[in-house]
Amino acid sequence: MSQPIAELIATVERAEAERDAVYRERAHLLAWLATAVSAVITPATDTDEPGWSLLYLTTPVGQMSWHIAPRDADLFEHVSHVATSDPRAQWDGHSTDEKYKRIRAHIRWEQR
Question: Where do the WDGH domain residues begin and end (predicted)?
């Protein structure tokens, strides 16, 4: 393998490790948040990769959901694992933008 290719591979591997670390940190924060509001986790049926889950949080301002990678599943052992047919694990159609609006609304709700 030539040096430039080896350097490129090393750069890509570092970038992937940094990305994975950020997702792991996000997973820690979501796992903590799942202790503060109603939360369930269910197998993700909208991804081709096996082992992914969906975390659903229900708050006074609406539902919020995130995909959880298999490598982060250990952080969510305290969350109720439910079937995809469970009413608490039904996506309400919110977009990512709506989810972040709900986060901001929840912060305002908590501050009242």
Answer: 23-104
